[in-house]
Design a protein that fits this description.
With 406 residues, the protein is α/β, with parallel strands linked by helices. The chain is built from 17 helices and 17 strands. The protein has helices spanning 9-15, 32-46, 59-64, 66-76, 78-83, 110-113, 131-139, 156-160, 182-189, 191-194, 196-204, 269-278, 294-302, 316-325, 336-342, 367-377, 400-405, and strands at residues 21-26, 51-56, 84-88, 93-96, 101-106, 118-123, 141-149, 167-172, 218-221, 229-236, 244-252, 255-264, 287-289, 307-309, 329-332, 347-349, 355-359. It is globular and about 60 Å long.
Amino acid sequence: MHTGYQSSILFLQNYLADAHIVVNQGGTNSGKTYSIMQALFCFACQNNGLVITVAGQDIPNLRAGVLRDSLKISSEYEPVAKCIKSYNKTDRIFEFHNGTIIEFKSYDNAQDAKSGKRDYLFVNEANGVKWDIYSELSLRTRKKIYIDYNPNCGFWVHDKLIGKPDVQLIISDHRHNPFLEDMEREKIESLKSEDEEQWKVYARGITGKIIGLIFNNWHICEAIPPDAKPIAAGLDFGYSNDETGCLMVYKQNGELWIDELLYEKALTNPDISERLKAAGLSKKMEIVADSAEPKSIEELRRLGWWISPAKKGADSVKISIDILKRYKLNITRNSVNLRTEIGRYKWRVELSGRTLNEPVDHWNHLIDPLRYVALNKLKISNLVQPKTRFPYTPRSLEGGMLQELI
């Protein structure tokens, strides 16, 4: 079938794979998810009455990743677009003229996964999906199963699937993606000088063991509680190579509640202003922004925003991390990019294996604005340095000759 696809080698590897289970282990930006979806759209166009299920950890993750790729494929490639009868945005289902459907779903538990059968299954970012859920889905899949993930560490794919009969493993990295910009490649490769273990995982797609994660005090929440008190928004500027990131921080019952508002490249300051308005942020709410961008701060002020520079200084990164580690951090399920960053944010490790007291300076465009809010708005009094004290003097040594000598 002629699709008109611009495709990488990963498309043919997945499209022509003859194993029942095709595992795509890959570094960041290898194009594995996009290539699998291209293959699934081909199968959908070529065959009548198929049911194709794309499963993920939750709906926000699907929307931010594989569903966005699918909407691009379905609209940009004319032969594919002609085969599609409709797309139901509410239920996230593509319906084809030949009776085939592609559905995007998440499952709360194994019992939930028992409903429905399918011809093809794609488990996206499988390290966020539990084994018992996958197991139920796989039992109800007739033709082929695709799996993809970043190999931060070993999980059930490594323990239960790889190396078994009828399981094919494809390992990819950004070098297999011919459509990636050079600046993005350089950014990924620069990990080697920061942290070789992360470089192995994200630049080479090699199974690693990401140790030394900074935050383990965070949890997913469905929404911000109605009675949570707004503290401030945090803003980190980016442009061509880095995302502009903004989030809103609330406090309730001694816990922090955090909601992602913005995560996008190539935004001018007027663009940022429009995005913040669209996200529902009030101009009466204080925004704590990166003090390294005084010109951007002033431009946003002139556009009517209440914006303050972050109070940076000696040890400000460590101090802000210490502040945040004293709270339970509740991150909304829709904050997909923040959840990804906080799951990668770790201390630097030297080649000798010694852990340094500074974080790896990557994937922090929402972590940094969270730190800015902590520095400016959440200082804790007991973080002051302890004062020098003389040791306690027992009563038995007071008075007498000793007292006279003193």
